[in-house]
Amino acid sequence: MEKGHKQEFASRRTFLATAAGAAMAGSLAPVVKATPMAPVGEQGHGVQRAAIRRVRIPSSGELIPAIGLGTSRTFDADSAAANENLIGVMQGFLDWGGSVIDSSPMYKRAEEICGTLCRRLGRDDLFYATKVWTKEGKQAGIEQMKRSGELMGTKRFDLMQVHNLVGLDVHIETLKEWRSSGRLRYVGVTEMRNMKKVEELVASGVLDFIQIPYSVTDRRVEERVLPACIEHGVAALVMQPYQGGRLFGAVNGKTVPEWAENFGANSWGQLFLKFILGHDAVTIPIPATSKPHHLDDNMGAGVGEPLDQDARTKLVKILES
After folding, report:
1. How far apart are CA 229 and CA 248, in angstroms?
2. Which residue of 48, 86, 182, 189 has the fewest C-beta atoms within 10 A of its own C-beta?
3. For strand 69-70 and strand 63-65, is the pairing parallel, antiparallel, or unpaired?
4. Cβ(318)–Cβ(312) under 8 Å?
């Protein structure tokens, strides 16, 4: 990567550290090495795009790109048509060969913005994932999911998740019915706190996916949840891979270690994502951004190998020092 672009990513670290202060890792089916999914050698935002790795969904063997796109906060915009940054994010995501885009009714206008951007760019072939999030019962959940499909521009979702386990017992039955009838392909849940319940659900045989927080400094799912995913063949999507930006604050002023080059990592952000990808239970992280150059940095973490155990240990020590 060019020196100028490395310096640009340094500003990301400073920005996120400031924002954070203001606001306050078994085995899956084998990873498939990089294949020409994206336009190899295409230049964008000062980086050279290359084909990102693909990984398998345990329950089906389907291959998906190793880095997804989250939309919490970042895609809650007033006007996608006028937001060139978000257009650049989505175009860059597609140019890298990205596919998995995750949203939720909880994210306000994010689903609508996703649909608007995809229509503007002439694409309707993404791996669409969103969530059902209501306490108002079965029919309310059904209507919400139908509306999500209209907003995001898809007649069939690839993945539908019960958001934060809200209305779990009711909605999980609907999702199972919809999966059986072909109205969606995969069933999942998301949760940030009750990892004991997540582990129980993973072992139940009902789920294809879970979505949980995991990062260099939040490794609580390593003890039981991620091993359960390996044992029961459940895919793991990772939210909050940067701990809401706090990880960048923790390395503010520190130089990316020289050994990062052995894994093709050019920034702290790529190291953080490659740490996550280095756990055999993880399917993909889904970092969110509203800035095209951050998107390029995120997607670059999908090129080359993830961190091995030795490098993962080194990175933990850096963050704990």
Report:
1. 28
2. 182
3. unpaired
4. no
Structural domains in the chain, CATH included, are 3-320 (3.20.20.100)
Distance CA 200, CA 204 (A): 6
Cα–Cα distance, 63 to 31 (Å, whole number): 9
Q: How far apart are CA 279 and CA 272, in angstroms?
A: 12
- In the block, tokens 């998740």 appear at 161
In tens, the pLDDT along 302-314 reads 999 999 999 999 9
123 closest CA partner among 102, 143, 97, 142: 97
Three-state secondary-structure class, residue 98: coil
Average the pLDDT over each of 22-36, 237-251, 297-311 and give the range with the smallest value: 22-36
Cα distance between residue 48 and residue 44, in whole Å: 7
Assess contact for 303 and 34: CB atoms under 8 A: yes
β-pair partners for 157: 184
The H-or-E segment that residue 174 falls in is: helix 168-181
Q: Residue 80: its pLDDT value, please?
A: 60
On the question of pLDDT at 21 being above 50, the answer is no
Output DSSP code: residue 288: B
Residue 50: predicted pLDDT: 81
Specify which residues 212 forms β-bridges with: 238
Q: Which residues contact 206 (CB under 8 A, 6 or more apart)?
A: 172, 176, 187
Distance from C-alpha of 113 to C-alpha of 222, rounded to nearest angstrom? 34
